[in-house]
Amino acid sequence: MKIGFVAIHVKDLDESLVFYTELLGFTEIKRFSPEEGVHLVFLKDEEAGKLELVYNQNVSKSPKDSKGSKVTVGLEVQNLEAVLRKLKSKGVEPIRGPIAVPSGEKIAFIEDPNGVEIEFIEGF
């Protein structure tokens, strides 16, 4: 068994697509609407990892309903500092890190526009 994809429920599909494609380098591979008001977009990374962005316009968008995500997406990177510099140039700051962990990896965290925590891992 292996993970096929991670699904992220988003509050703004266009904003999320810009974040994942332009800032993080994912590529859109499939888009469809399984029912009225629900839009799915699948993205892939440089290898075999996939994300599914789920936008449901029928779900309430009130502030009390959007408390952020309980999901963390871990992305392996070759050079954490280079990734953080690129993100900073686009106005995205880490929420934690960079942190050197005892097992030798370096990690840092950002949030996407939906409150999903993105963890970058160097040396994984």
TrEMBL record:
Residue ranges of the TM segments: none
Annotated GO biological process: L-methylmalonyl-CoA metabolic process
UniProt cross-references to CDD domains, sorted A to Z: VOC
Keyword Metal-binding: yes
SUPFAM superfamilies, alphabetized: Glyoxalase/Bleomycin resistance protein/Dihydroxybiphenyl dioxygenase (SSF54593)
Segments forming domain VOC: 2-123
Sorted UniProt keywords: Dioxygenase, Metal-binding, Oxidoreductase
Gene Ontology terms, MF aspect: dioxygenase activity; metal ion binding; methylmalonyl-CoA epimerase activity
Domain of life: Bacteria
Residues of the signal peptide: none
InterPro entries cross-referenced by the UniProt entry: Glyas_Bleomycin-R_OHBP_Dase, Glyas_Fos-R_dOase_dom, MMCE/EMCE_epimerase, VOC_core
This protein's name: Glyoxalase/bleomycin resistance protein/dioxygenase
Organism field: Alkaliphilus oremlandii (strain OhILAs)
